[in-house]
Structure formats: C-alpha cells, structure tokens
Amino acid sequence: MAHRERDTTATATTALAAPRGSSEELGPSAGEPMANIQPGEPAGMPLARARVFGALFGEHSTVGTFGRFRVLERLGAGGMGVVYEAYDPDLARGVALKLVDVATRDREPALAEAKALARLSHPNVVPIYDVGVEGHHVYLVMELVRGKTLRGWVVDRTPTEILAVYQQAGAALAAAHEVGLVHRDFKPENAIVGADGRVRVVDFGLACEADDPAHAPSEPRQVAGTPRFMAPEIKTGSAITPAADQYSYCVALAEALDHARGPVPRRIGVVLQRGRAVNPADRFASMTELTRALARDPARTRRRLAAAGGMAGALASVAFLLGRHSPSGADACDQGAAQLDAAWSPAARSAALDRVATLDSYGRSLRPQLERDLDTHRRSWLQEYRAACADHRRGTDSDALIDRRTTCLRRGSDALATVAELVGHAEAASLTELPRAVQSMPDPAACSDRAALASDIAPPAPALATPVAQVRREITQVRILIGAGRYGRAEAEAGRAVADARRLGYAPVLAEALLVQGHAQMSLPARIAALPFLTEATTVAMASRDDALAVEAWARRAWVLGIETAPDGALAGFDVIEPLANRTASATFARALLYNNIGTVELARDHRDQARGYFDRALAVSRTTTGRGALELIVIRINLALVTDDRARADKLLADAAAELADRLEPEHPNALEARRLRAFSTIDNLHDAEQLLVPVCRSYALHPGFAEVIADCWTEVGLLRWDLGDRTGATEAMALAVGASPEAPLTVAYLALLRGQAQAAARRFAEAQARAPSELPWQRLERGHLSLGLGRARREAGDLRGALAAFEAAISDLEPVVRVHPNADWERRLGRARVELAFTLADLGASEQERAAVATPAAAWLRAVGGMPSEIAQLRVR
C-alpha cells in the first residue's frame, strides 16, 4: 500500500507504507487520482491512476464507454460539444473527454479546436493529449483539471488575488496570440483555477486565425461568442484581431473586481478602461502589454530599483570584495547588512511577521519560529559575506572562486526576497507554507565550502553574465516556491526560466531550469509530465559537467518512472550515475536523494530488503547534508521506518523525524503532526501510549483548515483505542468528534451509532458500506476487513451471534494475509480485536474448548502485548 503525505515536505519521495486508518488515508491527497494496483503489478505498488466507475454518460451511450475510454460523468458543455470526465487506459490516467457530434456538421470545423490547441504549449493553456473520430463524434482528449472556474474562484477574494489569477489567464491568451490565434470566447467560465493554483484557459472551440487589421475580410465574419463579453468588432462582423480577446478579458476582470473584497487601485480601472475601448486601435498593443500594465505598481518598482541598486553595489565581487567604493577594507566587508536590507528591510520584515500573528492562533504561534529562523539565516549570511570579503582581500581565493562565492551569496539574498513576498502576502490558509519556504533557503555556509564550489563548469561569456544571473534569480524563486508547496506557480515560473535559458544558449543554467521545472511538475497530479524535463536536465547537466545536478535530475526521474510507469526500467543507468554521485564533492544532497529514490523504486519492485539497504545508505549520507534539501531528506527516516522489521528502531526513526520536523517547521505544523500521527498508527503497539500520543495531535490539526478527513481519521483511531481500553464513554466522545469533522464517513458514522447503543442501525450501516467496498487490492481488503469487524461487533451487541461469527471470520480472512506482509500497528489492532471478538462469540455459542483455544490463544497474546484489559485476558482463558 502506498502512502504519500498530504502536505509533502518537498517532493513526493516517500516510500511505500503499510496501510493506515482508512481507505482515503491509503490513497493520494485530495484532488488527485486514487491509487490503484493493477493486475500483474508488484504487490503494494499502486500507480496513480484515475478513479473509474464505468458510469453511464447520457445520450451518447448506454454501456459506459466511448471507444477506448471509460466515462465517469458529464462535466459540462463547451463551445462545440460536451465534456466528460473519463479514464484513458492507453494513457493510464484520468482525462477530460470532449465529444462533438458531427452527424449533421462537417468534421473540419469540429477538428479546428484540436488543431488550434496543438499549436499551443503553455502552462496556462489546457493541453490536448489526443484527437480522433469515433462514429459520429470527433473527440478531444485533454488534461483533466479539477478546480473552479474563474467565476467561482474569485468569490470573496481580494483585488490582489484576483489580479494574480487573471495574470495567468492573460499569459495564456498572449501565448495563443503569438501563434496567430484569437480565442474569441474568453469569459470567466472558460478558465479554470486548478487545485494546484494554476489557471488553464479552456474551450478553444471558437478560436480563429487572427485577421490582418489593415485589410478587411473579404466576407463578414460569422458572429460567435458570448454577447456580454464580445468585442464590438465581433458583433459587427469586422476583422478579428488579438485586441478582441483584450476586450473580453477586461470585461471579465472588471466584473470580478467589482465584487472584490477590498478597494481596487485607481490605476487598475484606467488600464481596464483602455482595454475595453470601442476602437481596437485604442487598446493596448498586445495582451502582454496589457498584463504588464496591470502588474505595474509604481511603489513596488521604486523598491525594486532601490534593491537592484543595492545588490549591484554589494554583490559584484569588485565592489564588495575589493572595497573599491569604500575608504577601508573593514568598511567594505561590513556592507552586507545593507544588501540583505535591500531584499527585505527589518521594518518590513517585522511588519509582515506582526501581520502573520494577527491572522489566526496558528499564526501567533508561528511568528516566533519564523523570526528565529530568519535571524539565524541573516547571521549566517552576514558571516559568510564578511569571510568572502576578507579572503579576497588577503588573496586567499582566486577570482573564479570569489565569483562562485559571490553567486552563492546572491542566491541567498534572492531567496530572502522571495520569502519576503510569500510572508507579506500570506493568508490564514497558506501559513503552513511559510516555515517550509524559510527552510528551503540555501545554506549560507555552503558559500565557503571550497570543495563543493570547485567546478569544471565553464562560466558564461561576459556578455551573458547579467542575463544568466537573472535566470538564476528566477530559478532561486522557483526553488523557494517548491519548498513552500506552491507547485502550480513554481511550474509556471520554471517554464519561463526554461524559455529564457534556451534563448541564452548557456547550457549549465538551462540544466538548472529544466531540473526545477521537472521538480515542480513531479509534485503535481500529472507528475508523469515531469519526465521529459528531468531527462533533458540529466543530459544537459552531464554535458555541462554539473555532476551534482545530473545526479539529482536522474534521481527524481527514477522516482517518477518507478511510481508511475516502469519500476524495472527506472534503474537503467544507475550503474553510471552512482559512481558520478560518489566522486562529486558537491553531490551530498543529490547522493542521499539518489539512494532514497532507488530504495523507493526497489520497494515498488517488491524488493523490501534491497529497499531497506538503500534507505540505510541514504540516511547515512543525509546526516551530512545541511541547508537546501535537508528538510526534504527527513523523509528518508520515515521511509526506512516503514520497511524496518525492528519495531523499536522504526519507532525511534519516526520519533526523530517528528522532532526534527517540529524544530524546523514548528511543533504544530501539519508535517510535524503527521509524523507523530504516523508513529501512533504504525509503530506504537501499546494501546494507552498510542492514545496518549494521538489526542494532542488530533487537537492540533484543528488549527489548520482543509484537514477534515485527517482529523476524522485521527479521532476515529482514538475512539477505537479507548474502546479497546474499556473507556466506552471516551470512545463515544472521540467518535463524535470524528463525525463532526467528516459527517459522511460511513465507518465512523456506523461506529458512533454502535457506541451510542444503536446496534441494529449500526449493523445496517456497516453492511451497506461493506457491500459497496471493493476488495481486489490489498488496501481495499484491509478496509473491508475493518468494516466486517464493525459489522460483527454490531451484530453481537444486537444478539445475532451467528451473523457476528461470520463477520468476524470474514474480517480475519481479509486482514490476516495483508498484515502478515505489511505489519503495522493500527491494522494489527484491527486483526487482534477481530480475534478477541471471535473468541468471545465462540464462547457465547458454546463452542468446544479446542475450537475456542485456536482463536483465544493468539487473541490473549495480543492483548497482553498491547496492554489490553486484564478482564478480557481473563475471559479468554481456556482450560
């Protein structure tokens, strides 16, 4: 069974874990496809695929399929057809399937959208995977985006938030214009804000080639689009140019801002008025110019100019290392504080942190942690700045090495500027991103690691130095966004960095940009799309002699291959990469990541012992890693714990991981809470100890919005532990809290009814849920076994002993074989409780001592091992 943290530390590099408290807990996070194990795949290796129910889909079929596609449900109508959620077995993923009925139309107009989309490749344009004809339908296979339309998303948002998402939509329209297309029907319903935060413009069904504004079309254009958003020239059949999309875009944005939560800057209204000019020639020269005008903030521009001036005077090696603009070397070496202040002044930082503390109770507890970590980073950066300056004055370092130290320090200040932006614009729902962002800043101590800085990488030509530095600033920003969990925005920003790097033609910075784009993409639901970026990053990095980057890119690629497509093929090339990792001084992080990800692949291949060996090696390397990546590598301890047979060692690994996460992120951060919860679920055998550990975790989760299912799962386990300990009242209270967090969870609702004495109603609920529960996959058998256990307990309390007997036997049959392969404390508790209840039921039915002993002996042994009730142990004695 695969488990991946809902709020991942960095990338989803966690190993396969034993099952947890519910079927949802065994699958991916909300908004992603459920994990399924396909026939013939290694046991315990779920590939991330879409849920497929084979539902009927309206007028198009009565068998639940269309060609090779299995269809789930109708999503809505597009410009020229109907869109469904479907599963594509060839692509092994969920897709959006658009069907256009061409029984009475020519196929060419129906195929126009596919041709238009095929010319576009942009993060904010929904990608098309396939197109074809099936019967009387033209079909388009597109990315399945889960989220809200712009119209729904902007409700109760601030002007800043609304402008940010509309900037993404504007970038999509600009991309279409660059290839000569006009969308012609932009409106809030035709752009979706995905669960990853990225906007995708959809429905290019009315897109057309842009007309030449200097020459009127030979025939009037057919009027098409949505009247409220339609540009005047479309209504009159005149030439259609990209300016038409500007008009629609500005109408939609103005409408959204009219209902914004907060005042709209006057300059925005001026921009929108121009974009809605009746005469196309009076609008902006391009969509890009329009979006730049919307983003242009005079106050922010002044601040950036001041920061840029400060950085130029401090981080150029001639200026701040030789002290040419200072009367003494000591003065020059003390100017670092001014450079950090240009990135984020102390006053601005204090104000931003004070604002965080006002957002909610978690913000108040988070503020001192953020201040502590930021102070630590500042002191370390200033120390390295002074050391680099002094070493250069003494002639200790060559100009080339000083340049590398300067670049390293510059990345630290750039990272601080990105963190400043995230903290300054944080909302209550995004507070958990902040400590992760701070922890993702590069370690300033690395700027004096001469062995790591020594490199055969050729520097850029002098003419490229400045633009290369700009791309590296973009890459630094992306790394911070990834660390914060802003994967959608990170992927979009990385795409721009890759485009900029390609234009420069400097391979080392292109490899960096490709790596961060792949890294961001592999953290999104469609992680398989990361493979081309990571593959190219590996190749370009090796050709550039950037061994550490090549190892990291290959390791991330191996993880995606192992999880998504081909575990066996994921190891091809490891014999070349491993020596590269071991000979490169700067590859400590990459080497630890490599062994962790190879361990994950080996586990996917059902090689548990080999996986444990690689995780052990990864752990040894990770102990020497600090700075960027150290937070991500904490997952190694979790992975190793989940494949370690020694329960005491596994528990210590999880306890250490929880302690370090609490120290780095804040004790009540969801990542720290999840590690503590995992201990109680996986390695704490004693019932009382597990209950004592879980209760404060369950309470702390309430600080964070969006964790309802985790809270319900947590309190459900507390309820079951208390019941095992004989505290039925406490169990009822815990189960009520679970139902309050997730009222629709069938198992929890049924248990609450049972604890309240409603045995027959509980039995009906358990039976109904069990009848719907699939059982082909291991984690599904565990879930069904748990439902059978609950059903048996309900039937026994209702007096149906024969029915209870059958339910307990079914529970043991489902639980026992899976727990044997994947030992785990919480599921061992389910199995132990099923045996105890079965022994009691056999006694109630008057079974022979021999028949009872076969069950009662292991049941009593389990109770003694976990600190169960002495009264139950006594009841299980068989003479």
Write up this protein.
- The model is unreliable at 1-63 and 301-330 (pLDDT under 50).
- 59% of the residues lie in helices and 7% in strands.
- Strand 3 (65-66) and strand 4 (69-77) form a beta hairpin.
- It has 38 helices and 13 strands.
- It is globular.
- It is α+β, with helices and mostly antiparallel strands.
- The strands form 4 sheets. Strands 3-4-5-6-8-7 form a 6-stranded antiparallel β-sheet, covered by helices on one side. A 3-stranded antiparallel β-sheet has the order 9-11-12.
- Among the domains are: 58-143, 2-Layer Sandwich (Phosphorylase Kinase, domain 1), CATH 3.30.200; 147-295, Transferase(Phosphotransferase) domain 1 (Transferase(Phosphotransferase), domain 1, Orthogonal Bundle), CATH 1.10.510; 745-875, Tetratricopeptide repeat domain (Serine Threonine Protein Phosphatase 5, Tetratricopeptide repeat, Alpha Horseshoe), CATH 1.25.40.10.
